[in-house]
TrEMBL record, chains A, B:
Pfam families: Acetyltransf_1 (PF00583). InterPro entries: Acyl_CoA_acyltransferase, Diverse_Substrate_AcTransf, GNAT_dom. Signal peptide: none annotated. PANTHER family: DIAMINE N-ACETYLTRANSFERASE, THIALYSINE N-EPSILON-ACETYLTRANSFERASE. Belongs to the acetyltransferase family. GO terms for molecular function: N-acetyltransferase activity. This is (Atlantic silverside) hypothetical protein. Keywords: Acyltransferase, Transferase. Residues 3-164 form the N-acetyltransferase domain. GO terms for biological process: polyamine metabolic process.
Length: 173, 173
């Protein structure tokens, strides 16, 4: 199937927002999504955006059952390793189920790698859930390392009250 | 002991670079550090910096055995959750061994939380090695969640040849 990958624009935020929810349903955490398409527009498409995004688009004649032509997205941002330098972090990679098996996911992943290399990034990183073996196998087959397995890295998060408590205890200038 | 936490400047990069190496030695991977202080200056202190950094400074009369007054640092950048919005990621938090136990590490952590909250961040995230129980306990005591344990998130990384391979397979525009 023919598809095109291009940089997302503000006008894509409704489609991206719809697919963020579809991905959260797949990840079994749909009630966690608090971000609206208006917030995506503000956070990704104003000055000093927090993220960049690519979308995959199919021609009108291949539109989805629901009538959509934007059928996948990859949302990423730049991070930094104090050992190796600039890196790109792939926060979300998603292709609608009826479009899988056409190389769209691989196309999005490779395009993010290409964008990252152009920005001098030396790494492309992402996170995946333990039980999500299709994704873990997909990345492993492409040469990725699982650092949680090989080096024992754990993810730590402060949010809500614990984050407020930290901020309130910050030393005064 | 009196200490002051302030935003790092370009002139601090030699000190930061020295402490990055000290932290890598503690993490048992000193041969992984490829970033020089010149690269830190370029990546963090030019237009569109990849990171921000705070340093902890002690008065001249408390300088270290090696003669240093910059004795700790916290290096961080902004990330984005498509579920919750802007987040701050603490890449490195380090205090020189002879200055530990004075609240400097906690001060740096809280200051990063405060900076993040000012930027509307809803999360502060970081990674820690499995065997590093002092750090894991420190974060847990402050209310952090270990997402690798509670939700099963794994870190995945492409670098070197596997990253080049991806980029080379990117679909042409």
């Amino acid at each position: 199937m023919h598809f095109r990958i291009r940089a997302a624009t503000k006008e894509d935020c409704k489609d991206i927002s719809r697919m963020i929810m579809e991905l959260a349903v797949y990840e079994k955490m749909p009630d966690q999504v608090k971000i609206s398409h208006e917030e995506l527009e503000r956070d990704g498409f104003s000055q000093n955006p927090f993220f960049e995004c690519l979308v995959a688009e199919v021609p009108e004649e291949h539109k989805s059952e629901g009538g959509f032509t934007v059928v996948g997205y990859a949302l990423y941002f730049y991070t930094y390793s104090t050992w190796k330098g600039p890196s790109v972090y792939l926060e979300d990679l998603y292709v609608m189920p009826e479009y899988r098996g056409n190389g769209i996911g691989k196309g999005l992943l490779c395009k993010v790698a290409e964008v990252g290399k152009k920005k001098q990034c030396v790494r492309l990183q992402l996170s995946v859930l333990n039980w999500n073996t299709p994704s873990r196998d997909f990345y492993a087959a492409k040469g990725a390392q699982d650092l949680t397995v090989s080096e024992g890295w754990h993810f730590i998060r402060f949010e809500g009250q614990s984050l407020d408590d930290l901020a309130n205890e910050a030393p005064k200038d």
